[in-house]
Every structure is written in structure tokens, then in C-alpha cells.
């Protein structure tokens, strides 16, 4: 029996939360708290984090509060605002998830996490200027000032794609919608708003007044960081997500392919001062990725220890 318990402890230390949760009841008496903790941790590792921080009552409050900081509010008025207040905790968790997936050689979910990071990266660039992480309830009025094409569907002068125009139009009014509409917006459209904002400030060929609310002395820096955020989404590393010829999920890259794609990505990003931060060796499995995110955010972004701390808590439960 003790050898089986030791095996569960080893699995917990390897972040195999799903396996520990499935096996615990056959090894440990009264495994309810262990199973709940494993479900909580697995949702974090899978980036399936809508309401786990509320449900996991048996998990210590500090861990739940840190997890909640990474989630999107599920209603327009929910408090605290979590990842709409700041994306920094979410990106720190993303970095930890990427590192864990790399060490476990689970490269398909690792590439999926990189894809998520690329989608929201322009919002990380905008956060210091917006004062939030793109909360639809707090958009600046200047976005829709006279002469702005922001959110105008069908305007051919606007560089936004049709899906982006639709998403931007929706984000300006979604804070007044019922909870169901709010959640549907975040499921399908919020990441497109992130890309649209990046285009406005860094890639628009016929700028309107949508970005005039940004102070001139901050606009150049914002444009540079946003340009790098948009470029990251087009790197060979992120494109691994779309490499399979028959659709997502069928082309799992090897560690060598991931490493080679990242090296090519670093070369392409090095054209600007912000992008050159990806060339630093900061000790991460993909060297320079935390430094790149920090440069885009204009704030330190380091891998969190949330999964590690949950693993330590789980080991304590297994030993009790």
C-alpha cells in the first residue's frame, strides 16, 4: 500500500494531476480532498479555467485566489475582474504551463498554450495604456471619437477583417448584455479584439482617430510593442499550431522541431529592440520567451509557481 502511495506522490510531483485523481480512491482512504485538488490543478494545466477557483472549496484560499486572478469574469459585473484587470498573472501561468508541458514532452498542448499566448499578446501590450487588460466595461471613450472607424461594420477604409469588425462592434456593447451573451463573446470574439487593437496602433494603412486618445509620447512605444505582439503570432513557433495538413490535433511536433521553430522565430523577431529580448538566455525551456513577454508588457513576466505550489499541497495531502 505504501509503494502505491509513493507512486501517487511521484505522479503529483510530475504534475500528473489527472492520473492521481483517478487512482487516489484505490490507495487513500477518504480521497475527496485529493480528487478535488487534482481536478482544480488539471483545469489549470489544461487552461480550462472558467469557474474552477469558485468550485474547489477544499483547495487553500491562497491558491484559489491566485487561480482566480487568471480567469475571465463570467458576468459583466463580476468582481474581482481577474484577467480583465491584468493579464500578467495569466501570462505567468501560461509560461508555467508551457514549461511543464515541455518537461513532460506533451508538445501538442504546449503549442496550443503558445497559440493562446499569441492571440492575447496585443492586449498585454495595451495594458499599461488602457489601465486594464481590455475590459469591455472600461474601454476609453476616445476609441469611438468622431472620425473613428473602430467597430464600424463594413467600413472599407478600415484594415480590420470582417470578423474583427464584428468583434470590435460587439465589444463596445457587450458589457450591457446578459451573462450568456458575455460568455459567448469571450468564447469567440475577445481574442479578435486584441488583434484589432494591435492593427489600429501598429499596422493600419489609413489611420482614423481611434488611437488619438493615446498620449503622443506613449504612442510610439505602444506601436512598437504591439507590432512585436502581432509579429509573434506569425512566427514559425506559433505556426506549428496550424502545421497539420488535415487540421488541428494531427500534427504533433517533436522537441527538435519546436526548438528549431523557436530559433527561427527569434531571428525574425530580432529586427526591433523589443523583439531582440527573445534572444536572451533567461533559463526558460524556450530561452527568451519570458523576456519577450516582459518587453511586450513593459513589465516583468516570469513563470508562476502556481502549479508547483498545488503539487506541493497535493503531496502533503497524500502523505497525511
Task: Write up what this structure looks like.
With 320 residues, the chain is mainly alpha-helical. Among the domains are: 2-89 and 306-319, no CATH class; 141-212, no CATH class. Helix content is 55%, strand content 0%. The protein has 15 helices and no strands. It has helices spanning 2-13, 17-23, 32-45, 52-55, 61-68, 88-103, 107-130, 162-171, 179-188, 190-202, 216-232, 236-239, 255-269, 289-297, 306-319. The protein is globular. The chain starts with a helix and ends with a helix.
The sequence of SSEs as H and E is HHHHHHHHHHHHHHH
Shape: globular
DSSP helical segment count: 15
Q: Mean of the pLDDT scores? A: 93
* Low-pLDDT runs: none
Radius of gyration: 21 Å
Biggest sheet record: none
Number of strand segments:
0
Oligomer: single chain
Please give the alpha-carbon distance between the first and last residues: 14 Å
Structural class: mainly alpha
Helix content: 55-70%
> Proportion of β residues?
under 5%
Quick structural gist:
By secondary structure, the chain is mainly α.
What is the element layout, followed by pairings?
Blueprint: H1 2-13, H2 17-23, H3 32-45, H4 52-55, H5 61-68, H6 88-103, H7 107-130, H8 162-171, H9 179-188, H10 190-202, H11 216-232, H12 236-239, H13 255-269, H14 289-297, H15 306-319
Helix pairs in contact: 1-2, 1-15, 2-3, 3-15, 6-7, 7-10, 7-11, 8-10, 10-11
Amino acid at each position: 500500500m505504501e509503494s502505491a502511495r509513493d507512486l501517487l506522490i511521484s505522479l503529483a510531483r510530475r504534475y500528473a494531476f489527472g492520473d492521481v485523481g483517478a487512482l487516489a480512491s484505490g490507495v487513500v482512504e477518504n480521497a475527496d480532498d485529493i480528487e478535488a485538488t487534482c481536478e482544480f490543478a488539471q483545469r489549470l494545466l489544461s487552461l480550462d479555467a472558467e469557474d474552477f477557483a469558485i468550485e474547489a472549496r477544499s483547495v487553500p484560499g491562497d491558491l484559489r485566489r491566485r487561480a482566480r486572478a487568471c480567469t475571465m469574469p463570467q458576468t459583466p459585473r463580476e468582481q474581482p475582474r481577474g484577467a480583465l484587470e491584468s493579464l500578467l498573472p495569466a501570462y505567468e501561468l501560461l509560461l508555467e504551463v508551457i514549461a511543464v508541458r515541455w518537461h513532460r514532452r506533451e508538445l501538442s498542448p504546449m503549442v496550443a498554450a503558445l497559440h493562446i499566448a499569441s492571440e492575447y499578446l496585443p492586449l498585454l501590450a495595451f495594458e499599461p495604456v488602457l489601465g486594464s487588460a481590455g475590459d469591455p466595461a472600461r474601454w476609453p471613450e476616445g476609441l469611438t471619437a468622431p472620425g473613428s472607424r473602430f467597430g464600424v461594420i463594413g467600413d472599407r477604409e478600415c484594415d480590420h477583417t470582417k470578423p474583427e469588425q464584428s468583434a470590435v462592434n460587439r465589444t463596445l456593447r457587450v458589457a450591457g448584455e446578459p451573462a450568456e451573451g458575455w460568455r459567448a463573446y469571450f468564447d469567440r470574439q475577445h481574442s479578435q479584439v486584441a488583434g484589432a487593437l494591435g492593427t489600429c496602433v501598429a499596422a493600419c494603412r489609413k489611420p482614423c482617430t481611434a488611437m488619438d486618445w493615446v498620449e503622443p509620447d506613449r504612442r510610439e512605444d505602444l506601436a512598437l510593442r504591439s507590432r512585436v505582439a502581432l509579429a509573434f503570432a506569425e512566427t514559425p513557433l506559433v505556426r506549428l499550431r496550424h502545421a497539420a495538413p488535415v487540421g488541428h490535433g494531427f500534427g504533433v511536433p517533436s522537441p527538435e522541431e519546436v526548438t528549431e521553430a523557436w530559433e527561427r522565430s527569434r531571428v525574425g523577431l530580432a529586427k526591433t529592440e523589443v523583439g531582440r529580448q527573445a534572444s536572451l538566455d533567461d533559463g526558460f525551456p524556450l530561452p527568451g520567451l519570458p523576456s519577450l513577454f516582459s518587453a511586450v508588457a513593459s513589465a516583468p513576466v516570469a513563470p508562476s509557481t502556481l502549479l508547483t505550489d498545488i503539487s506541493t499541497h497535493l503531496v502533503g495531502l497524500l502523505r497525511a
